[in-house]
């Protein structure tokens, strides 16, 4: 009679697959690694030294963030205060020092409750971002000249935003357990470093990245709480619920979606409720400003307006932009329900946020921060990522050169209107290119870098490896290879809700 194998013997016989090596699977990563000594070895991959992927990527992120601060040095040393056009010619503009006095922080005004002088009336940012700005104002020394205070305010915010950047990189690194080195896409993204301190977007991006990490660990309540906080800091994170809706519809995970939706709503109400009840006019300023704001920088609507003798009204643009966004949402839903294999959460998250950016009536240069962590998870391919980043850097330079042209008077230093339109076109085409690559991966799963390495949906949490319960068209009768999870079941930490280790 043969002895039954012990649990220990059974576990030891199951070989965990190695982490994915980008220097093995990605030609651009392999070529780029020669600058730092060549492809990674097994010791680095397995994390047997202090230099684990999380620590390396966090340090690289902080280093790149510091380089972005150095790039702002001309403005810190005077361009913000002594010349309108020089802060554009040096491409070092930031909203942060200008709004310290312009939004009443220098005078001790309380956001949303105290009325501002001038046309703005109240702070035009969501509540949690306003809290972030106010905390930075509390930490800013109130002595010295207003220029000195504004410099300090920018530095305090830069320190807080650096912490957000590190959180983003760590969360992306940990979301795909077998692909930790994909976090370098975030850490080394040039547009990320250049735009990190223009505004306060990194707060919402950090909360969104943390929410996606929680979802990947099968924790829908924690995901919802963090996503609700992110939505209280910026509006775009709520779009991720739309991506989850169609994914959970296809997989039949309504209970988990309900938990995420409920937690998101509760977290948002907890943050916004007190301000809404006690200072409605101040609370609603963000939403009124978003509706009333005219066509602005970076959008294809601006190209149309500046090339028309009779531009369409703001209300019409609002309506058309909303309709275009709804059409994109319908398209993403149809793609999800008809694809031969259920798309990954990160893929849909990128597509839905990119659709919002492409159809919106304004594209500020820091909005690229919304997409960087999603791109690293959705399409972890260095060639495509760098093509898109090159387009975003071109736009970053283009908008500042255009503003330099419009503020330099008769000198006309910078980029004229036609040149700026080309810069907008480059940004739009770069984003559309990355969207096209992700759609191709969804329609042809064998081209997806994540699934080609043997995973199903490592950012999908309860969706990872789950069978479909509702599909449309040809996806209702897919070939065997497209209908099931054919990747290895891997232990990566604590147990998930389905009993598998994560």
From TrEMBL:
Give compartment(s).
Cell membrane
One Pfam family linked to the record: GT87
User: Please, which domain of life does this record's source organism belong to?
Assistant: Bacteria
Q: Where is the composition biased (Basic and acidic residues)?
A: 15-29
Q: How does it sit in the membrane?
A: Multi-pass membrane protein
- The annotated region (Disordered) lies at 1-33, 480-502
Q: Which UniProt keywords apply?
A: Cell membrane, Membrane, Transferase, Transmembrane, Transmembrane helix
Q: Where is the composition biased (Gly residues)?
A: 493-502
Residues crossing the lipid bilayer are: 50-70, 122-140, 152-172, 184-215, 221-248, 260-280, 317-339, 345-364, 385-405, 420-443
Family from the record: Belongs to the glycosyltransferase 87 family.
Q: What is this protein called?
A: Glycosyltransferase 87 family protein
């Amino acid at each position: 009679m043969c002895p039954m194998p012990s649990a220990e013997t059974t576990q030891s016989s199951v070989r965990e697959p190695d982490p994915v090596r980008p220097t093995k699977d990605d030609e651009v990563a392999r070529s780029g690694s020669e600058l730092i000594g060549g492809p990674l070895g097994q010791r680095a991959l397995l994390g047997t030294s202090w230099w684990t992927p999380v620590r390396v990527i966090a340090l690289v992120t902080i280093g790149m963030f510091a380089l972005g601060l150095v790039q702002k040095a001309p403005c810190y040393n005077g361009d913000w205060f002594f010349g309108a056009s020089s802060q554009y010619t040096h491409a070092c503009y930031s909203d942060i020092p200008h709004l310290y006095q312009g939004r009443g922080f220098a005078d001790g005004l309380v956001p949303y409750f105290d009325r501002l002088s001038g046309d703005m009336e109240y702070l035009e940012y969501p509540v949690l971002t306003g809290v972030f700005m106010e905390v930075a104002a509390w930490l800013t020394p109130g002595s010295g000249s207003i220029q000195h205070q504004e410099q300090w305010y920018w530095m305090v915010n830069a320190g807080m935003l650096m912490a957000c950047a590190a959180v983003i990189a760590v969360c992306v690194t940990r979301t795909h357990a077998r692909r930790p080195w994909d976090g370098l896409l975030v850490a080394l993204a040039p547009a990320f470093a250049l735009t990190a301190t223009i505004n306060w977007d990194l707060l919402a991006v950090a909360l969104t990245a943390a929410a996606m990490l929680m979802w990947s660990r099968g924790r829908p309540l924690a995901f919802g709480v963090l996503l609700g906080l992110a939505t209280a800091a910026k509006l775009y994170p709520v779009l991720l619920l739309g991506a989850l809706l169609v994914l959970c519809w296809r997989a039949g995970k309504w209970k988990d979606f309900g938990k995420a939706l409920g937690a998101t709503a509760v977290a948002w109400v907890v943050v916004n409720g007190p301000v809404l009840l006690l200072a409605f006019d101040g609370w609603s300023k963000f939403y009124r400003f978003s509706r009333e704001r005219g066509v602005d920088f970076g959008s294809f609507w601006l190209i149309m307006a500046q090339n028309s003798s009779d531009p369409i009204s703001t209300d019409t643009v609002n309506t058309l932009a909303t309709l275009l966004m709804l059409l994109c949402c319908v398209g993403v839903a149809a793609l999800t329900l008809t694809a031969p294999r259920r798309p990954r959460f990160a893929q849909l998250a990128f597509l839905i946020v990119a659709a919002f950016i492409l159809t919106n009536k304004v594209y500020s240069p820091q909005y690229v921060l919304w997409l960087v962590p999603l791109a690293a998870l959705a399409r972890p391919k260095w060639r495509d990522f760098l093509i898109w980043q090159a387009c975003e850097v071109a736009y970053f330079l283009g908008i500042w050169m255009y503003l330099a042209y419009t503020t330099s008077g008769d000198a006309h230093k910078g980029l004229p209107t036609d040149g700026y339109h080309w810069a907008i076109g480059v940004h739009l085409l770069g984003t559309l290119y990355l969207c096209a690559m992700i759609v191709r991966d969804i329609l042809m799963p064998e081209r997806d870098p994540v699934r080609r390495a043997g995973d199903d949906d490592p950012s999908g949490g309860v969706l990872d490896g789950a069978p479909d319960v509702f599909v449309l068209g040809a996806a209702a009768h897919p070939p065997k290879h497209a209908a099931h999870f054919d990747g290895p079941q891997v232990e990566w930490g604590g147990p998930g809700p389905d009993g598998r280790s994560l």
